[in-house]
Amino acid sequence: MRFCPECGADVGPDATSCPDCRFPLQLQILAEGRGFRITSQQAGNWSRISNLLRRNGINVSVDQTDSETVRQLWWSLPFVGLLVFILSLAFGSHWVDMIWERPQITPVMVDLNRKNGELADGGTNSENISEEAEALLSAFRTTEEQRRLTEAWKNESVNTVERADATEDQVLAVARQAVLSVKVRDAYQKGTLIGSEGRFFVVSDFLTGAFQTEKQNVTTEGRYVQEFRYIAPEVELNSGGSEDAQLIQQVEGIHLTLLQANSVGDPAFSREFDRNLDLGEPVWIAVSEERGGDVALEALRIRNTVKNDKGITFWTLNEGVDSSNLGAPVFNRYGDLTGIYLQVGGEDVVLSLRELREKVPSVYRSLK
User: Fold this and answer.
1) Which of 262, 267, 266 is nearest to 243 (CA)?
2) Range(s) of the chain covered by CATH 2.40.10.120
3) Does position 125 have pLDDT exceeding 50, yes or no?
4) Which CATH architecture has domain 168-204+236-366?
């Protein structure tokens, strides 16, 4: 069992890159003497791997080293190749190699998910790998405990039981928990409960006038006075009343902002981060009047896909719903929260939770 260290997607045993996010799962380096080289073809792979290490607190530095011996420097002189060819014919290549040592390059395949390093010919014998290459291989290896925990996590996360479709009443019960009503000044918009401790998403454009301080005229003892007031989004609670929301993160590229209101609580429903949507798949969107109306379900289907300039894939719908429902939760046929309703480029779309997990993993990790 293997997984992508970038997005967590399942990958095949022989995959060289993640099929979902294209993260490189194999890196080819060249061991030369007491140094290393990475070919230009591997530069892009190493860039993504080193960025992943840095994001996880591991500093990566590159030191310039002279990996050529004195005898190898002969090869930089003019006409050395012709001279070596003539001497090889006269004395044999063995004696020539003793004078002009050829640079010895040993390709080493570093697989981020394999227990042992592999040579370029597929073998696992490391006696021809330099100490430096062996040290690098060891740094990328996973421990037996890590592999055991990964296997256990995958066994828990993969549902092999065939599931029955949820009824409309079952999905509606979940929708009433997931959909939130958010107020900024006198305007209302939908929000989707997505994470623990009351973390939820709301459309970013709706928050343009929020999280700022302004002067307002208020009535105090029969007269008008000016007071400074901090404008924060308010979340209506099921128990009555409201609570100011805190800003957690504005997520570029997906048109959503992550907020938090502790009194909202944790999601008591299933969230589908593993399986993506599919063309023609039926979905339910939780809709309601702008404020105060009971939640209802709108049955739609996935029509196609579209990408924005940030490379985020959205799933287009066969029909749209009222724009007051932007940011509302979207459910699959099993009643799992599977996405969020948005409008991108004039089209009604769904941002799937799987796409959120792959393209914005830092946000995904904060929702667990």
Assistant:
1) 262
2) 168-204+236-366
3) no
4) Beta Barrel (2.40)
